[in-house]
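Case study B.
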Amino acid sequence: MLAFIARRLMQSVIVMLVVAFIAFLVFRYVGDPLANLLSQDATMADYEEARERLGLNQPFYVQFYHFVVNALQGQFGVSYRLQQPVSQLILERLPATIELAVASSIIALVFGVFLGVYTALKQRAFSTGVIMTLSLIGVSLPTFLIGIGLIYVFAVELKWLPSFGRGEVIQIGWWRTGLLTQSGLRSLILPAITLSLFQLTLIMRLVRAEMMEVLRTDYIRFARARGLSSRAINFGHALKNTMVPVITITGLQLGSVIAFAIITETVFQWPGVGSLFVNSVAAVDVPVMAAYLVFVALVFVIINLIVDILYFIVDPRLRDGAKSGR
Amino acid sequence: MTDLPQSPPKTSRWKTFLRSDIVWSYRRSPVTVVASIVAFLLIFMAVFAPLLAPYNPFNPATLNLMDGFTPPNSSSMGGRYFTLGTDSQGRDVLSTIMYGSRVSLFVGAMATLFAMVMGVGLGLVAGYVGGLWDAVIMRVADVQLSFPAILIALLIFGVARGIIPPNQQEGAAIWVLIIAIGLANWAQFARTVRGATMVERQKDYVAAARILGVNPFIILLRHVLPNVVGPVLVIGTIGLALAIIEEATLSYLGVGVPPTQPSLGTLIRIGQQFLFSGEWWILLFPAITLVLLALSVNLLGDWLRDALNPKLR
Amino acid sequence: MTTPVLSIRDLVVDFPFHDEVFRAVNGVSFDIMPGEVVGVVGESGAGKSMTGSAVIGLIERPGRISSGEIRLKGERIDNLSEPEKAKLRGKRIGMVFQDPLTSLNPLYTVGRQLVETIRAHLPLNEAEARQKAIDLLTEAGIPKAAERIDSYPHQFSGGMRQRVVIALAIAAEPELIIADEPTSALDVSVQAQIIKVLKKLCTNHGAAVMLITHDMGVIAQTADRLVVMHHGKVVETGTVGDIIRRPREPYTVKLIDSIPTIERKEGQIAAATPANDDSAYVQVKNLVRDFELGRGSFTKLIPGKVEMFRAVSDVSFSIPKGQTFGLVGESGSGKSTCAKMIVGLVRPSSGHITVDGHDIWAGGAGHKERRKRVQMIFQDPYASLNPRWRVKDIIAEPMRTLGLARNKTEVEHRVAELLNKVRLDPSVMRKFPHEFSGGQRQRIAIARALSSQPEFIVCDEPTSALDVSVQAQVLDLMSELQSEFGLTYLLISHNLAVVRQMSTSVGVLHNGVLVERGPTDAIFDSPQADYTRMLLDAVPDISKVA
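Model:
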């Protein structure tokens, strides 16, 4: 088990290094880092001096080394657009994004798995047809349109919920939360639903497909032939086997929620990392772009690791494989 | 016995086609029939926009601010009739939708084609050659698949903006967009094709060709490729819907097509500004068109998957 | 008169497909008496499995019982509601499926699956159920059952898993066990043991058995009575001895006649003329093949100790021109790896293969000679023909690749000729493979192999995917072509009867080692190696009918 996790950790480090390398390339070669730092009337000497000071004259690998060391300490330089340290910008906005992502992940997971199992077990029911059709519409609706639609109905017409922002927030240490105030919670509802819908349909369709696949296997037929109750078959045997592949893909889907929040945050003017990123892309604010890339990769790697460990717990075949040193 | 050569029933090729599983499942699915008609009409409308559109919304000479904010199905103060109304600058919404769909479809189709060629090529190589090539290609695909396409596209777009000189940005924007969306979507093709290729590679008809000493490239092209076309078609169709949505999203975020060539996403972005002030038609009609386009293509893809994979039905 | 355990009357099972209805079972009637083992035999598509599914109430949608009656101990069970049917399953009717590798849930321990089944049907508590599970496993011949009960299915071998499956089927003491091809996925040596276990457990627990199989040999050794099915109908019923020795119906006569036996038949190929090994047409010398054991592509880059697995170990034999060498072995014996090395698909780790004096792995000329002279016929006729190609292109590929035909007309002419040779109508050349039956496809595969005008054909289990009657036809065709073209065959098979019929000499492969080789009659009549003796004893054969 430990060897298995150690191996996965190694792979994660490699992935992070590759992403850091791409981020470094973006950081170093897109646009001119100096042009943004120095004033319009800087002299050639100023340029040379700045080059020397920032280490831009050093060999490529030394620069990359410094980039990685800085990144490990959370240093990604200063935003061209906002003239603030990137790490500070991201940390300030992180709580908003994480609260949104977690809330919508829970919605997507709970409803996605439930509806997936339901539609797989009741394959011929009318309700299944309705749910499947709705899910297809859900996949075809761009997230931003869902957001606009929800705003129009619940904020503009019904005036039940706020249409933008986080509402009142409370500062706990460096974490600024909107979960403890009524207006904060009300503000979370529409963005969380918007963000969850796409993942929800994906998870639902995946669970349904896997479950139907499992229900067709020999061991389910054999379980039937042994006269087990359909409850034991569906929820004991089938569901657990369904979970093996579902865990991976679902985990990765939820990881992507963080990055997917870009759109939702823009529609609802949610002050998170995603909207920061979109504004940075529009303004070619390279340090923020590079830092965001590394940040998303980190989230991906962590979730991947959790998924691997879960997998390990669920599937006995893997445990044996790891024991024999594979 | 069953094994004697049976005289083939004499039917025309057309009749065989009509009796095939695909046609059978098409005729049995009214939703699919409707979806294909809607998709056809939308594509037709987009392709022939210059011939069909009642106005040319991008010709400044014909624009009249007096026509601005005309509600649907009424005549403007300038005395002209607009089926779906006009926007703030007096552009005919119906015509902008037709031209906008044209841009959306072009970008979506080209990006999907790009992703398909790249993904199928790399997937074939990874699946057939295996070993280190496979490991590298698939690891990259795995990592990329775990990032949402929209993020990848945004990044590529941002990088391209930093590299391309500002005066050429407008002309290159559409191509940058196509490459960005294409690069964001290739991995899905690669993964599917690789899986299918690995299955086919194990089959004996490939072994038979290898025994003969047929060139591996020819084996890939003539033996393996035709047998992985099915899943590629399915992913291609669903990928087209996805690419259209991604383009709309990027344009909605303001980083997509230039304002001089608005796509459906741009139109929605513009329309949203007027939602709160009551000019709903500027937003609603482009939005409906976009959803219809994506939904009909998705429905076709869904049907295609079921039809090509009868055991999943 | 005692009531039969199972009584089926005029059973009809229909499968609506598109706008038509396919009748899988068409008016089947038979009885099974208490404690009796009844074999239901037939070729694929005979409706035998469907009859079994109908009895236990597990016909998959959209199939349905359209008419007829099924009675269990006199009570009608075909019209019960789904929950009532579920109560019968396991409790009164048990079932054993074909593939032990997929019959058990991989995520639960064997013990949990047994306890769950026992407690679903019998009023026992957890500890009692567990004890019963251990007893059942012991009875099914699983050593140290008390320790192994908490293992997962993947920790058992195929044969052991099938014992677990049988224990599961009998767990609630049912009156009837339906065994659907219970040994078809297993090796010959395991097969015999499993049949014994099945019979022993059913006798001990007083269960009658409905044994569904295509293998007449298994039935001959196991069953009391026989039901022969064909195209959804019962053709003939009777005691096993009667039907095998004195079949009455024309279909049964033909079926029995086409079953190969390991006994020597009259008029069989004469023993091999002792050939001088060095002048033989095909020579395999000290062939070895090692495989690296599971390492990822990335970890392979890191040097280190590599675990090796020797699939083929120092195999040597030779085949004189125009004769057939039979290579026999169970799964995992390395026989397919041998075939792949001989046709040039897998490079040997060491050793030589020469065909007509050319070393085929020497590169350059040897490679070219191999392409010209060596061809292969594969096991699965569904996978060996490219489904997207027309028959004409499939058969023409070798001559096109090797440049044997000059133009289109000549290609077409040659393809037509080859189709005639394999007894197919030349007009079929414009069709696609899916329009043919398994036997017809195998003929097309043979035509393709002949298309490059080879002298040596490696046949890897050429008939094991086919029904017996079709198998007989394909084997006949192969023999005829051999004498017509003077072909040399390497026949690889797990089926001893087929090898006996076809080969002049035989080699027996076990765990990559050639344990014995010699003239066919010598090996079959007086085997020297223990392994060969065991194989010959284990093989179910119709000549062994009680």
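The CA atoms of residues 165 and 261 of chain A lie 14 Å apart. The remaining cases will be described in the next quarterly update.
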